Amino acid sequence: MSEKDSQSIPGPAASAELGKKISLGLETKRLLLELEREVERLDWEVTDRYQSVPNLAAPAHHLLSAGGKRVRPLLISLLSRALDIPFKQLQSCAVAAELVHTATLLHDDILDGATTRRGRITAHLKYDAHTTILSGDALLAKAIVDIAALNEPVILGRLGQTVHELVEGECLQADLQGKVHSDVDTVLEVARRKTASLFAWSAWVAGYRAGKHADDLFRFGTHLGLAFQLLDDIIDWEGKDTGKNRFQDLLESKLNATGAMLVKLSPSARDLLQVAFSHADKDGYIQNSKELGEKLQACKEYPEALLWTRKEAEKHSAFALAELGKLPNSQWKSLTENLVKSLLERMR
């Protein structure tokens, strides 16, 4: 990778977020910088992997170069140290986790008709949907090839199952799109499959390669992913200055956890949504989603629905930290705990 190319792929934003949320000592900052550099040195550049078909790499490079938290590779890097296993044994797993995540974002933006991602125009609008779909497919293929090279059938099998769950989660969500419902359990199942499953694999693979705490870390990753998604649901309703549009789910005729709970609690919210969803355009979009969202927030049951989502997120966060607590005490375990807390700090 050229110096120019390597500079075009930013480092992990999750570690920077940790520094903003929690007061760090000099030694902790040094350790965090070491991790940042380690994650930055991973082979993120995709252009040189598809030299025979250079257009295939462009959408993937467009999204990867926009930055992002790199939560999954950063977690794997932290856990490798907490488990006393050389990160070199997990490097391909860290890259695979982020490539799978990036592929899902490329595909999701097309399915959702999104126009921006990480402050940039989405890849399918900059290029085209056909090329972007194939670019996401190529990232999935690259992740599978890299993991297959480890000659660890269990790891490869679990990654395949994870990708399968990601697809199932998207299908479950599509079945609910455009429906005014209070099916909170299915919304949480969508979150488990679409978000938590890849967190779970990322944490599990570190334990599996280390030969210890694999099941504990699988549960840790699952609960962390659920908390992470529930936090996103809260931000969708309440978020300001987050780089994300409020009421994006309503725009797409989707009810997230807060929306589904609000329907369960509020007949007036259900009526508002029935009218709005019935007037969605041919692509399922609500043209006045901001106005609709603010009307729903004015329902007297809204604070209770939001509080329920917040408590669910806090519950899964506590479960995640409890599972992580089973690892031996070390500075790396403490740093992992702090990273988890910082990522979920926006619930406050």
Write up what this structure looks like:
- The chain has 348 residues and is mainly α.
- It folds into two domains: 25-151, Farnesyl Diphosphate Synthase, CATH 1.10.600; 179-328, Farnesyl Diphosphate Synthase.
- The chain has helices at 3-8, 13-21, 26-40, 58-64, 71-82, 91-112, 123-126, 129-148, 153-176, 184-210, 214-238, 248-251, 257-265, 267-278, 289-297, 302-324, 331-343; strands at 116-117, 120-121.
- The protein has a two-stranded antiparallel ribbon with strand order 1-2.
- Helix 5 packs antiparallel against helix 6 (91-112).
- The longest helix is centred in the middle third of the chain and has 27 residues, at 184-210.
- The protein is globular, with a radius of gyration of 20 Å.
- 45% of the residues are buried.
> What is the domain tally?
2
Q: Can you name the CATH architecture of the largest domain? A: Orthogonal Bundle
Q: What is the total tally of β strands?
A: 2
In CATH, what is the class of the largest domain? Mainly Alpha
SSE layout:
Layout lengths: L2 H6 L4 H9 L4 H15 L17 H7 L6 H12 L8 H22 L3 E2 L2 E2 L1 H4 L2 H20 L4 H24 L7 H27 L3 H25 L9 H4 L5 H9 L1 H12 L10 H9 L4 H23 L6 H13 L5
Antiparallel strand pairs: 1-2
Helix pairs in contact: 2-17, 3-5, 5-6, 5-10, 5-17, 6-8, 6-10, 9-10, 10-11, 11-16, 13-14, 13-16
